[in-house]
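user: Please supply your own:

assistant:
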Amino acid sequence: MTAKLEKNTKQPSFLDALLQNFNLHERSTFVHRLIYIGNFVTNDPAPEDQPLIEAFRRCIKLINERYFDEKLSGFLLLYDQHFCHVLEGSEESIIRFLTLMYENEILKMKLGTVKMVVVYHHLNQRLIEDWMVLVATQSPYSDEDDSVKKDESTNFYKKHCIDKLYHLGLSLRQNKMPEHEDPLSKLFTRRRLKSKSTSGNKESVVKVSVFLPELEYIKRLLEALNVFDLNQYVELYNKVPYLDAYEEMIWPLPCEYMPMHTFKKDAVPIGSLGTLGDI
């Protein structure tokens, strides 16, 4: 009776638990987040370049309509000659979008240096559920301002951009800003205002918005040699790494490819194999 019950009872697997979690979150696969930055080679301000903005929108729309498993969401933050893009979706959707972006004739002409800041895998939740374009209506501080820290490490600039963009995404979700079909949403960066203090008139910095990465930090990341180019990320995605172990003609392989406990257990002696007459 016990044996029959065990035979008819299906043992839950890791796949069962994974599919159950997908159903609970109304997902079909894992969601990833890619943050990358770049500049434009045109002289026209990006927020006024409608063909440029429409090229991004068409690529997003095409992916969401034709290759839909987990839709693309996020936001494109435009400065005059630079941008930050937070893109969320399935791994396949993100790679297909990047491929379309590099194949688009308008974007190929106008995109300059584009570098990847960070990629997150298997997100708990999205920042926002739609994709939109945001415009910074005032330029952030230049490198001559005291608020801009000079000679910092690349990781410092990365962390600054990630923190600002993450809090911007949280703000967009809480405030329920307009979807991408509406006019461009505008954000103010930091600006200088005169204020009075106990020590008399003093020029101080007033944070109109704390959610925008400093433009100088974006420029330094684009100039850094140790920041990964985005096109390299796309190219590596379609390549299977080749290991030197595939060419080994000896056994066992070097120790780093072997399980650590392989030779720690006592070997069982092999008995006589017999002869053909015994078969």
